[in-house]
Amino acid sequence: MYFTPFEKYLYKIKKKIIDFLGFNTELFIQLDITTKCQLNCKGCYRKTFNHEPENTEMSIPDWENCIKKLYNFTNRICVQPNFILCGGEPLIAENFLSILLILKEHYGNLVKIYVLTNGIDISDQQIQLFKQENIVVEISIDGPSDTIHDMCRGNGSFYKTINNIQRLKKNNVEIIGLVTLTENNHRYVEEFFQLFTNLGIKNFTFHRYIPIHSNDTMALTQNELKQAYTNILNFNKKYNYICDTAKPLYVLLDQNIIGHGQWGSKSITIDSTGNIKPSSRINLTLGNIKTDNIYDVFMKNKMMISLRKNKISRCSKCSFVYKCAGDRNAAFVNSGDILSEDPLCWKE
Predict the structure, then answer these.
(1) Domains of the chain: which residue ranges?
(2) Cβ proximity of 144 and 104 under 8 Å
(3) Contact, 278 vs 338, CB < 8 A?
(4) Which of 124, 142, 156 has the alpha carbon at shortest distance from 185?
(5) pLDDT < 50 positions in the chain
């Protein structure tokens, strides 16, 4: 591990100072370690955006260099990194364990690690690893029943995922449920709450589906999104759940909610070929970790600076700009400009 006792002490002191001053101290770094997946889900943006052949994916030495650079970068700007291992499907990636060990070698227990999985194939060894290393497992569920879930993910997917959730719960592994709201499932918000209640999952979130092309039939309309968000807020109170609503547009329904995505400051994605992206859900590349300085890309890129300064069309004049600023993924897909307005914002 690369932190000396003195570095640990210095890191904690600097973090306390920044906490006191009120600056953002967390950075979520998503590592898309592979494009491989055993499913062929409808609306999967990986299939649309990732056209590189599998043999161009980064090698273990590449990932080690990447993580070294990220270590130096996060230490330089004094943020608390949280790593999300994603794919494709990370649990079938040959490099999964190696990358996890490299993260542990550099950061030890000073970081939180999440694994985002479809929950189809989870081995006993992986479950024990999650338990031992306090890794949080985020599992995608696209329907509260097999009929709705399998419509997107394929026959038999629902019960495989539910079975593996039960195995994880039995071993006291922390689970976060992830629902992507689509035309197929947005009417079943309460049924999702009931499903998570039955599974004993108290922490979950609903993500808005981002269309992958202009005629995407899985995307919600403005009214459907507003109604779904309204239902989520209502059922969150009814079921006394920890459902994450700190997302854009919720403030239009409850002004106490701060749902600013903090684009340009709180998250970054490294894909399987080393491309640096503001988000994994849009096809926008800022540089490559193998050849570019991550500090320069993150701190000096004009688009990232504009995002940090909320220089966003229409949003910049809105009274809720510091609580919302719209969904930047949706804005980019709609117009090709990440700084444009959210196409489903209903504020007049």
Answers:
(1) 23-310
(2) no
(3) yes
(4) 142
(5) 1-2, 18, 20-23
Taking the model in full, what pTM does it have?
0.92
Gyration radius of the chain over CA positions: 20
Give residue 221's Cα distance to chain centre: 23
Q: Which residue in 106, 117, 25, 23 sits closest to 64, CA to CA?
A: 106
If one counts every other C-beta atom within 10 angstroms of the C-beta of residue 8, the result is: 13
Start-end of H helices in the chain: 5-21, 45-49, 60-76, 96-107, 124-133, 146-153, 157-170, 189-199, 222-239, 294-300, 302-308, 328-335
Distance CA 222, CA 233 (A): 17
As a whole number of angstroms, the distance between CA 1 and CA 226 comes to 47
* Architecture of the domain made up of 23-310: Alpha-Beta Barrel (3.20)
Give tens-digit pLDDT for 121-145: 999 999 999 999 999 999 999 999 9
pLDDT in tens, 264-278: 989 999 999 999 999
